[in-house]
Write a structure and sequence with these properties.
Two copies of one chain form a homodimer.
Chain A (H helix, E strand, L loop, with lengths): L3 H16 L7 H8 L3 H13 L3 E4 L3 E4 L1 H23 L8 H8 L5 H10 L25 E2 L8 E7 L4 H10 L6 E8 L4 E6 L5 E5 H4 L2 E5 L1
Antiparallel strand pairs in A: 1-2, 3-8, 4-5, 4-8, 5-6, 6-7
Chain B binds a DNA duplex through helix 2 and helix 3.
DNA sequence: ATAATTATTTTGACTAATCAAAGTTATATG
DNA sequence: CATATAACTTTGATTAGTCAAAATAATTAT
């Protein structure tokens, strides 16, 4: 059985792979993500390669094998189902469940996980809109547009937030920018690095920097 | 923060202390309980003594300090609340929740624990009738009688089962001998090492060996 | 093309938790 | 009482995961 440490490395390799279209992930970057020294990342990745969870090319980086991806998706399934469970069943706040799930994801048995899945009626996204892999390890990642790229004056719905920082999530909650909220982009100014939007339900006008807008993924209505 | 390993040693020292009226616990016994070699138990207990969780007397044994007891009760609170939660909210079977809780008890945060406590409406016993310590670390241990010692023909209620073995618990469930079930002791034969009882609701007559009867704690009605 | 910088790997050391086996102490038995 | 046995402790080794710092390789700048 994979240790929590291994599960975490594999999970982060998967997520970083998603961000970089499956490029080999260099050890420096992995070290930063895992908050360890580069030497530690190198030696852990060698161990992962021995277990055939990654392919490792010295001085180039590591990439998950099929088996590694499978493990990553199982961890991600636990993480995201637990997040949703904490929000729906235990009424924890949206902004705090990520940290909690970081610990729980390594100790939830398959039996408990399937009970949670059933209780939540087989959901397919977590509270941040991240897709929940199936128990077979399938994941359907919709390609959303981000709020800084989408067309002006188009009605859209928030589908996913790609940042787990609690204070950022609390900010979004205060501004009413949570998944399923409908809104329209009013203006964008690349020089000012800002975009203005209006929410439908509350008619709130909000101005965001483009780097923040990029973290909010939407789909057209 | 105490590691899972430390939490487990401290928890077992507490439970064994309960069974032996606070005698010093010898290393051989601790080793058996923890499924490690005696040398491992000795060295771990020395580490616990350095952290002031136990008092250790070489060649005599170890006993929890006040701080150690406090930690043990916090672990036990997590364990027992989680057990009840798994039964009530996730519909796991009575017989299997002990093993699940063994893993979860080390990673449940205070925040999640208090949510569970609230959801279950501040219960005071777990599914086996074991008392749940308060968040301050108080525990009220009622002194129940066991089924092999109690008076013949007296109406009693099952209050607690002092064995967590899943197959034993499944047996009790099949026989309808679960907490809160009411019954009467019909006969006892010390030579045959057996006792016969009848359940009130179902009028089932069941014969148990005395060692099994000793694991079933009851209170008079 | 050489030097300087940056990224990566290697080496040696450390901690927590464990075991096997040798050594020590206490207890029980002849 | 002497010794055999059982309980316990010590010692030396191992594994997983980590860091600091030295060594190496690759990249960038001069």
């Amino acid at each position: 059985m994979a240790s929590s440490t291994i599960e975490n490395y594999v999970k982060q390799l998967y997520l970083e792979g998603q961000r970089t279209s499956n490029q080999k992930i260099p050890m420096g970057r992995l070290a930063k993500i895992m908050k360890v020294t580069p030497g530690t990342a190198t030696s852990m990745v060698k161990a992962l390669a021995d277990s055939e969870l990654v392919i490792y090319e010295p001085r180039e980086g590591a990439r998950l094998t099929r088996g590694g991806k499978q493990l990553a998706l199982h961890v991600l399934r636990r993480h995201r189902l637990v997040e949703l469970f904490l929000v729906k069943t235990l009424a924890l706040d949206w902004s705090e469940v990520h940290e909690e799930a970081e610990n729980l994801e390594h100790v939830i048995s398959d039996k408990v996980l399937e009970k949670i899945d059933k209780l939540l009626d087989y959901p397919c996204v977590d509270p941040h809109g991240d897709p929940i892999p199936t128990s077979k390890g399938n994941i359907t990642t919709k390609q959303y547009e981000n709020l800084s790229d989408c067309r002006l004056h188009q009605k859209v719905k928030i589908s996913r937030i790609v940042d787990q920082d609690p204070t950022f999530l609390q900010f979004l909650e205060r501004e009413g920018l949570t998944p399923n909220v409908k809104l329209t982009l009013q203006s964008r100014d690349d020089y000012a690095d800002a975009t203005t939007l209006i929410t439908h339900a509350t008619s709130n006008t909000i101005t965001l920097g483009l780097s923040t807008a990029k973290k909010i993924l939407v789909e057209p209505l």
